[in-house]
Amino acid sequence: MIDFANGSVFKLNPCDPGELYPQVAPFLIQGEQIVFAFRSVRDFVVFTNKRLIAVNVQGITGSKTDFTSLPYSRIQAFSVETAGSLDRDTELDLWYSGLGKVRLEFKRNVDIRQLSQMIATYVL
Fold first, then answer.
1. What is the predicted pLDDT for the residue at 64?
2. What's the domain count of the chain?
3. What InterPro entries does UniProt report for this protein, alphabetically (predicted)?
């Protein structure tokens, strides 16, 4: 499983969901659609209408990949931190029952409020 406590794992930039669809399509259930997609150099995260899927590409060759599925139904609380003048990144913290806190860090150009509204739609 991905080490979500290590914030440097995920410094995410927005990307086109269609770019990542072929890699996550085998894991999606009927009616599940990608709403937002973000990627770092090798790893990526997709937010669907049902869950968050975090993908960690492992090893030098990248042939081993970990897919972690985090359903919205298990979120107990969440918070967002907007970018400031000195700290230019935004953060999303999700507290999952049985797992604990999951933190994702995004580059400044991510609309964290829109992402927060989407999560609230599925959690509340």
1. 86
2. 1
3. PHb, PHb_sf
